[in-house]
């Protein structure tokens, strides 16, 4: 009689890979979880109940065939598990590391709902593809037949790279343009190494290069090359720029020295990790060492900032969030990791003002030139904190924060990081493009099935269409757009329409 490999959730408890101690991991930027051993990965995969209607799959934006590759892993058929995993996801080892599984697949696991603890889907997904890399099963996207049509992709983030991979596999000539010196977008410069070590991203970039994808880096569209020039060079264009404009606060002294944007802070830290020379880090502006750090925000970017500050040797790290823990948009797993590492969360609190003082050269100049204009540039000294309470729900259903009068206090700070979310840049204006329609939020208008914009042959995906969202959604959009672009270039879409 055959041995039952699956449905072991009753007898086998849920286990994550071993997590390095907070004291150890706070000293470096390496990933915090160790690798699954082969036997442990198979054991945890065997806990899957093989549901007839797998909610893990339906709640995954990519609709990954999760029960299938869990079963193959439990049976020791890892190369097959990798093939199944890769068939629906361009970057499974990246999603396994950074997806908020507690809000997606694992949060909707049937055995989690029944009280047995979810299958550790993300960790097994990471293990499968890391093993595939070690075994040499991961191959460049080499097409069976080359095609003459070319596609220009603006943005080397997850959406652009996913589309590049899919288009290259079909034989199209693909060129990716990006403003940074390395491809990967926020996967390279926005997400810290303790969540996603950079060699994981760089090896994917190299795989695409080996498959024939051309990268044009350090290229700012609208400055180094015009959008019209890119359209003229290619048969189709995909806009996958992401969103980089930081939301700001309408309070006093937002331009004070020591008040920085999260994207600048995280990018500097990642560049230093690469060994790059970063003057703003060297002179201390973007280095938290020895400083009292206050991070404003409650999303995953805020979690990245507070945990980065800990690793840089901050004197103290506090996170201000205007709602309570239950209403925090960031991953609860990340909040727990941050607390273990020494971050203090100040719930129901919002900044009311930044309080600065004039020091050093600024003070000397003002005293020496009393008749001249007064310089108002200040160095941050503290944050005026306003205490909040939760009131009636807003249109989204979340309770709106309300100010508690007379409950203000000053929180000393040497470095304040604004992690308030991102908004789209005004691309039609930046690029000098007529006819590229945008929504009232500034995102590009695109058909949510075909990803076609208002301009013929121009498509758009990811955050520049959705607004700031998850890597996994950008991957889905990129893969879908690749199919639409292929249909557009080969005439299949026009034939189908007729």
Task: Quickly list its features.
metal-binding; 15% strand; NAD(P)-dependent oxidoreductase; iron; five-stranded parallel beta sheet; alpha/beta; oxidoreductase; iron-sulfur; 498 residues; globular
Task: Provide an overview of this structure.
Keywords: 4Fe-4S, Iron, Iron-sulfur, Metal-binding, Oxidoreductase. With 498 residues, this protein is an alpha/beta fold. The chain is built from 21 helices and 16 strands. The strands form four sheets. A five-stranded parallel β-sheet has the order 3-2-1-4-16, with helices on both faces. Strands 6-14-7-8-9 form a five-stranded parallel β-sheet. Helix 5 packs across helix 8, helix 9 runs parallel beside helix 20 and helix 13 packs across helix 15. The radius of gyration is 24 Å and the shape is globular.
Quick take:
The protein is 36% helix and 15% strand.
Calculate the terminal CA-CA distance, rounded to whole Å. 56 Å
- Widest sheet: strand order? 3-2-1-4-16
Mean of residue pLDDT values: 91
Oligomer: single chain
Give a quick account of the main beta sheet: strands, pairing sense, barrel closure.
5 strands, parallel
Helical percent range? Answer: 25-40%
SS strand fraction? 15-25%
């Amino acid at each position: 009689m055959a041995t039952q490999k699956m449905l072991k959730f009753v007898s086998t408890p849920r286990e994550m890979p071993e997590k390095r101690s907070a004291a150890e991991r706070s000293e470096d930027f390496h990933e915090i979880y160790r690798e699954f051993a082969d036997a442990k990965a198979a054991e945890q995969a065997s806990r899957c109940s093989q549901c007839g209607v797998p909610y893990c799959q339906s709640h995954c934006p990519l609709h990954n065939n999760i029960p299938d590759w869990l079963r193959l892993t439990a049976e020791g058929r890892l190369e097959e598990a990798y093939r199944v995993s890769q068939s629906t996801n361009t970057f499974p080892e990246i999603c396994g590391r950074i997806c908020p599984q507690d809000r997606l697949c694992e949060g909707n696991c049937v055995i989690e709902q029944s009280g047995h603890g979810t299958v550790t889907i993300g960790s097994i997904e990471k293990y499968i593809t890391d093993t595939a890399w070690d075994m040499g099963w991961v191959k460049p996207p080499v097409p069976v037949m080359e095609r003459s049509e070319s596609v220009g992709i603006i943005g080397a983030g997850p959406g652009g790279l996913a589309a590049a991979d899919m288009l290259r596999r079909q034989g199209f000539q693909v060129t990716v343009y990006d403003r940074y010196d390395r491809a990967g977008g926020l996967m390279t410069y926005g997400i810290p190494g303790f969540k996603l070590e950079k060699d994981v991203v760089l090896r994917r970039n190299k795989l695409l290069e080996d498959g024939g994808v051309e990268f044009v880096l350090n290229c700012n569209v609208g400055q180094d090359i015009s959008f019209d020039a890119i359209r003229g060079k290619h048969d189709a264009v995909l806009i996958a720029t992401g969103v980089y404009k930081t939301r700001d606060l309408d309070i006093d002294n937002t331009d004070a020295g020591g008040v920085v944007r999260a994207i600048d802070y995280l990018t500097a830290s990642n560049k230093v990790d690469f060994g790059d020379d970063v003057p703003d880090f060297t002179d201390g502006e973007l280095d938290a060492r020895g400083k009292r750090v206050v991070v404003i925000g409650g999303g995953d970017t805020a979690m990245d900032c507070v945990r980065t500050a800990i690793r840089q040797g901050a004197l103290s790290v506090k996170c201000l969030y205007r709602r309570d823990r239950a209403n925090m948009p960031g991953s609860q797993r990340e909040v727990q990791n941050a607390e273990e590492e020494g971050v203090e969360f100040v719930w129901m609190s919002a900044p009311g003002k930044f309080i600065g003082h004039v020091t050093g050269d600024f003070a000397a100049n003002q005293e020496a030139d009393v008749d001249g204009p007064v310089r108002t540039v200040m160095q941050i000294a503290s944050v005026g904190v306003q205490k909040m309470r939760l009131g009636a729900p807003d249109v989204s259903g979340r309770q709106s924060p309300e100010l508690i009068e007379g409950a203000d206090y000053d929180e000393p700070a040497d470095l304040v990081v604004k992690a308030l979310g991102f908004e789209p840049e005004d691309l039609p204006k930046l690029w000098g493009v007529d006819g590229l329609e945008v929504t009232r939020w500034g995102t590009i208008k695109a058909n949510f099935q075909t990803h076609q914009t208002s301009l013929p042959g121009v498509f758009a995906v990811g955050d520049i269409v959705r607004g700031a969202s998850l890597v996994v959604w950008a991957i889905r959009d990129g893969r879908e757009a690749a199919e639409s672009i292929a249909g557009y270039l080969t005439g299949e879409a026009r034939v189908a329409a007729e």
